Automatic annotation (TrEMBL):
Protein name: Amidase
Biological source species: Bifidobacterium pseudolongum PV8-2
Composition bias type Low complexity, residue spans: 294-350
Coiled-coil boundaries: 93-134, 224-251
Region listing for Disordered, in residue ranges: 176-202, 294-362
């Protein structure tokens, strides 16, 4: 048998639940303001980038000493396009694309909220046709709960209050006057009464929903306009990037036609490196576009009842790929002991004829997406070079590669992975770093690498005295 206080608790809880539901139905949607600010590190990074660009131009012009000024300017401009302007434009385009996607998501969410409110209105109008505008849902719900939950000798007293009240507010006021309610329960019931007064009956609730729809409609229109503006801004940034790429293609073509004017070996090497970097940027852009097209096909929903053809696989997302799943069959090999000089085992049958690459241990790109190791695997794959999936951190590749039959030495080769020791040339400690050799000069190499300027951002550097590094072939 329940005591009177416990009965009141049941009723009060029911009232509070209904009150919360009623208040949620009419609560205004408050937009969340996000603050953005340039940090000190952003300013430092910008200054460092400008200083690096100035040093690069100075070194390049020193190699072009004696070359005609217009030809030297063409080479420097193409280098600036490839290493500074195009990456900056690409970053702005990526940020604009992300902002446009976020704005569209907010607009879609606002439209869904408006649609839900309109459905609430439609459902309530249908109920009003059945019961009229004066029907009090809260009072009816509490009365039904009391009928189902109350048992005991004084049930009739509670029921008399319940059924005798003409509306919810009168019921709560009647219950407050009874000794069965404790002080806390009386306060809670009073608060519930205030909340429930906003939706005394279905007619008033309909008015509240209509007011909410008006606000949601304005919010939806605002967010839709913001999404449209963001989409236009993103398109402008993409157009600017494409214009710079077209300019780079034109300058590269012009430079290739004037290479015969370069008689000095240092100038020829400098021009060739600039041309190669521009070509790499173009090829990488083409590869990314192809992967994006493949990803769009994957995103298409397969019709129900159909199956994917045997042997087909799902391509990975190109621009922001998720981390590839770990294969099930192989287990990650244990790292061998650290030798002072890596051994040079015989290249296995899966390797190339030049002792570069191997199919041994290659189960797909299992490295963290966007990191230097991820790019080294991807870039070597583009070059037709196999790479084991579990060579560890970039600074460990030179140590772990021999266990897979890869040749490791101090001789640079196009396509080789340069495994930086921790702290070497700015490599992180204790993880080290890894890059891919793109070209080899008389006393220099040009490398491509990821995550120096951020995840998925591919940059290029020219390093001198290449014999001091470890190369994984």
């Amino acid at each position: 048998m329940l005591h009177g206080t416990k009965k009141s608790s049941v009723i009060t809880s029911a009232l509070l639940s209904i009150a919360c539901a009623a208040s949620l139905a009419v609560a205004p949607l408050m937009p969340v303001q996000v603050a953005h600010a340039d940090t000190y590190s952003d300013l430092v990074n910008a200054q460092n980038s400008q200083q690096a660009s100035a040093r690069r131009e100075s070194e390049l012009r020193s190699q072009l000493a004696g070359v005609s000024s217009d030809l030297a300017d063409t080479i420097v401009q193409l280098d600036d396009l490839t290493n500074n302007k195009i990456p900056a434009a690409q970053q702005k385009a990526s940020q604009a694309n992300a902002a446009a996607a976020a704005a569209k998501s907010e607009a879609d969410d606002a439209a869904e909220r408006l649609k839900a409110a309109q459905k609430d209105k439609s459902d309530l109008e249908a109920k009003i046709k059945q019961t009229g505008e004066d029907y009090d849902d809260a009072h009816a719900a509490v009365a039904q709960m009391a009928r189902e939950s109350m048992h005991g000798s004084d049930t009739s007293d509670v029921m008399s209050v319940m059924t005798g009240a003409t509306d919810t507010k009168e019921f709560i006021q009647s219950m407050q006057s009874r000794d069965a309610l404790s002080r806390n329960e009386a306060n809670a019931a009073s608060d519930a009464a205030d909340d429930l007064s906003t939706s005394m009956n279905r007619g008033e609730r309909l008015k509240a929903i209509e007011q909410k729809i008006t606000k949601l409609k304005a919010d939806t229109d605002t967010k839709a306009a913001a999404a449209q503006s963001a989409a236009e801004s993103a398109q402008q940034e993409r157009d600017a990037l494409n214009k710079l790429r077209a300019e780079g293609e034109s300058q590269r073509t012009a430079l290739e036609g004037r290479k015969s004017e370069l008689s000095d070996a240092a100038a020829q090497e400098a021009a060739q490196q600039v041309i190669l970097q521009s070509q790499l940027d173009s090829l990488n852009e083409q590869w990314a576009a192809e992967q994006e097209a493949a990803a769009q096909q994957v995103q298409q929903v397969t019709p129900q009842g159909t199956t994917r053809p045997a042997g087909t696989t799902t391509p990975a997302q190109p621009s922001t790929p998720s981390q590839p799943a770990q294969p099930v069959t192989p287990s990650q090999p244990a790292q061998p002991s650290t030798p002072s000089q890596p051994s040079r085992p015989v290249t296995p049958s899966g390797g190339s004829s030049g002792g570069q690459g191997t199919s041994n241990g290659d189960y797909g790109n299992a490295y963290a997406a966007g990191q230097c190791t991820w790019w080294a695997y991807e870039r070597r794959k583009q070059m037709g070079i196999g790479t084991p999936s579990y060579l560890g951190n970039g600074g460990d590749w030179w140590r772990n590669a021999p266990s897979y039959g890869l040749r490791v030495d101090h001789t640079p080769q196009v396509g080789a992975a340069l495994s930086f020791l921790p702290g070497q040339e700015g490599a992180s400690s204790p993880w080290g770093h890894v890059a891919v050799v793109e070209s080899v000069g008389s006393n220099s190499i040009t490398i491509s690498e990821s995550n120096v300027a951020g995840l998925y951002t591919i940059t290029y550097r020219t390093l001198y005295n290449p014999g001091r590094f470890w190369y994984v072939h």
